[in-house]
Amino acid sequence: MKKHFRLPFDRTCIACRMVRKVDELWRYVRHPDGMVVLDSNGVFNGRGAYVCQNDKCFELAIKRKAFSRAFKKAILGINKGVD
Questions:
Q1: CB of 58 within 8 A of CB of 80?
Q2: In what side-by-side order are the strands of the sheet with 77-79?
């Protein structure tokens, strides 16, 4: 049986489910206070959720409640963090 494997730098967008390189995605993390913020430098610890670098996927992730599902916890707000 053939095993499927991905390179460690590929991640899946939580909105459109496309597999992309890490540098093509925005990484969001959930702070202990319940806020979701952009981790632009990759310095925050913990579980990350990846979204394509476009507004369409970001809005779709909010509409589908993909952030709550990705973090397995309720979220209190989202700070998009980009213009």
A1: yes
A2: 48-52, 25-30, 35-38, 77-79
Is 58 exposed, middle or buried, given 0-12, 13-18 or 19+ CB atoms closer than 10 A?
Answer: buried
Domains parsed from the chain with CATH numbers: 10-79 (3.30.1230.10)
Length of the chain measured in residues:
83
Residue 71 identity (one-letter amino acid)? F
- What's the mean pLDDT in 53-78? 92
Rounded to whole angstroms, how far apart are CA atoms 37 and 60? 17
The pTM of the full predicted model, rounded to 2 decimals, is 0.82
Q: How far apart are CA 80 and CA 83, in angstroms?
A: 8
**Token pair listed for 46:** 């913990």
